[in-house]
Each structure stands twice: as structure tokens, then as C-alpha cells.
Specification:
Blueprint lengths: L1 H11 L9 E5 L2 E2 L5 E2 L2 E8 L9 E5 L38 E5 L31 H15 L4 E7 L1 H12 L4 E7 L7 H16 L15 H15 L2 H7 L24 H14 L4 H13 L9 H5 L5 E7 L7 H13 L4 E6 L12 H8 L3
Parallel strand pairs: 5-6, 5-7, 7-8, 8-9, 9-10
Antiparallel strand pairs: 1-4, 2-3, 4-6
Helix pairs in contact: 2-3, 4-5, 4-8, 5-7
Amino acid sequence: MIQMEYLIRNLCTTRTSQEQYQTYTFESLPLQRGGQLAPVTIAYETWGTLNAQGDNAILITHALTGNSHAHDPQQPADPKAAWWNLLIGPGRVFDTSRYFVICSNIVGGCYGSTGPSSLEPRTGRPYGMRFPVITISDMVEAQYTLLRHLGVRHLEMVAGGSIGGQQALEWAVSHPEMVHKVAVIAATAALTAQAIAFSEIGRQAIMADPDWQCGDYSTQRQPDTGLAIARMLAMVTYQSEESMEMRFGRRPAQRDNISSPTHFPDLGGRFDVEGYLYYQGNTLVRRFDANSYLYISRAMDLYDVSEGYPSIEAALQRIRSKMLFVGIRSDFLFPAAHVRWLADKVRALGGNSSYVELDSPYGHDAFLKEWDQMAAALSLL
């Protein structure tokens, strides 16, 4: 019965497009905050071919609710088929005719890698909130183990945005000898207090849902309302005032068939922007696990590149890679000024660092939309 519930839960949180991922299971992962996770399964996808020297690999790192499906070779021109689809493929920035491109699902997630919905070996039941605290460093070390298994000896590049950008930065600091180039996109050395505050409100919405059941919810009654509200709040931080005015303004709701997660009265009619948020919330609950959201969002909050070092300078001085930092003019979550500061800091410490700013009204999400600007920026590495 428990095994069947686990299988159903995974089917509920895994998109059809994830069917082609592969998995690698290894014995244990020592954790940054103490203890270990054992065993550990990493789900991943690859495109292109690894050369005999094992040094033509590119690692792509995904964002908070993302997954390994960064590219879809069957639909290479469709930006909705995979989250960085237009940047990956023959002749593109991440050229699969030259490079072996890898994207893995992070530890703590719900797309095939070990996470809170995985079975705990000791009990045979899903971990739930018994899952250990996971950090960005832990995600990177799991990726490092996977790459060694795949025969990768050197990375030509690591690139990612948002929490993926945090992973890219951590790669540059923790494994400087292995990475040639690193693209840190829409990410900084640490989140601001304001960003942490928004993240905590989202987690509290999940944990306040009666169906959360202290993390031991069933597949029949998951905390959908709480997760949907958390996603609604997060979507506001991913946008900008400029983009929301452009797209929605104060127009009345255009989507009459979309209900709010709480199903409460609309109090005099709804605005179009509200329908958009309801849609985003309702969509996430069909593909993501609430406990994974708690753990991954917390890992994003906890990240500080200086942790474990005497200072941020000591951490950044470890970098040997050619670094590209990409900020977004309208980013509310990771302000462009903070990204630029980090790029300048690395350069002042003697690193090979450059900064590019996307001139976009689309806020934090611009790195998933501005294909021409992203291709131009990444081509500088």
C-alpha cells in the first residue's frame, strides 16, 4: 500500500515531458548542515556527446520549481517545450554539436531526484518533514557526484538562473579547478531580507493549510490551497510593476473559468491580474510537491556564498573561472544592482569577471523569456 501511494505521488508531481530522464543512485551524500542523506538518486537529462577527454561538458542548473527538461530535441523551436529550449541545440549558445550538455533535477525536488516525497529507507514511508535540511552546496555536491559517474573530468561551463544561478556561483567557489566558465544569472551572493520575508510567507501559507498534516499529507488530500497561494505570492516577485501594468493594468478578469484557490466570493468582480495568479497557482499544484517547495525555497534563503569561509572575500578569491554575471533591469527578487556589485567584487579581487544587464520589463523571469538578449549575453563567455 505504501509503495503504491509513493508511485501515485510521483506520477502526480512529474510532467509527461520528464519521461526521458535517466537516474543515477549513489550510496550517500554528506550534508553541509550535518548528517547525510542515503541513498541518493539523481534524475538527469543529457544532449550531445561527451568526448574522450571528458572535458566538453556544460552543466545547466534549473530554478526553484524547474526540472531537468531544459531542452526538447523533438520540438527545438518551441519555447514552451522546455524551459531553455531556444538556447540549447546545434549551433546555439549551448551547442550540442560541440558540447555534452547536462541538466539534473536537484536534490530535494520532486522530479525523480531524492526529495521529501521519496521513501525513507528506515520506515518505508515518504520522508515528509523528516527529510534533512538541504543547501545549495548539497545540490552542487550531488551534481559533482553525478558528473564523475558520467565520466566528466572538466566542465566547460556551468550556467543557471535564480536558484540555478546560486548553484552556478557555488560551483565556481567550491570546485574552482573543475570549471572553465560560469554564468551566474539573476542571482547574488545571498538573498536580501525582503526576499527571505516573501519566501517565508509562502511557506507559512503551505503549512497553514489543514491538509498539510505536518508534512504527512496523502495523495488524495494534498495542501493544494496553501501551495497555490505560495505560488501566487512568488509570481508577484518574479514579475515587475512595469510588466504587470503592461500585461494586465486594471482590466476586469478575462478568464471566467478560473477559480481562486480558496473558492471564496470575488467581492465585486475580479481583475485580470487575479485570474493570472489563480491560473499560476492552480497549475503548480498539478505538477509540484508542497514539501519540496518548503525545502527548496528554504535552501534558496539559506544560501550565502561566504558560509564556511572567513569572509566573502575569502570565498570569492577561490574562483578561477571566467565569470559572467547577468542582471535584469526590472528584477525585484535579485536586484540588478546587487548582481553588478558581486561582479565588481570578483573583479576587484583579481577575478576574470564581466557584467551584462538585460534591458527587460519582465522582472526576474526575463532570463526565461528574453531569448535574443540571453543568447547575446552568454556568447560573451
